[in-house]
Amino acid sequence: MNYKNFTLLILLCLIFLSCSRTKVIVVDVGNNQINIDTTVLRQTDYEIKLEHLINDGLRIVGIAQRYFEKEVYLGGGGNSFLGFLLPRHLMVTEYGFYSLKSTNYYMTVTCIAKYDSTNSKNGVMVEISATPDKATVVIVRH
Asked: What is the CATH number of domain 40-141?
């Protein structure tokens, strides 16, 4: 392979890295062919989905905490999580399914990743435990 083609390959890899969330890319140049190790990309996709599950779960917790603080006559819980309903648009998102259990002072948001046939690491479940002033994220299984 001549240096002109190799320079183009390096440029394409740099563009790819700058446009994606990939941390590592493995390129094999041989016999004028380019092979990219896709297992690295799949792992990154898994991490992105996990981040989205956690972010969506924390968004639900934030809404619930505001509900807790709001007075009952203003449509809130009046210092209770009881009565808080999961917003319909957050029950199912692109990345997962969400449910919640609540008591007066404590709630748990369960986030379950959607099945992905291209990823062997399905079965991701995240639980976010919350009180009125804090939240704890636990990755239950992966």
From this structure: 3.30.700
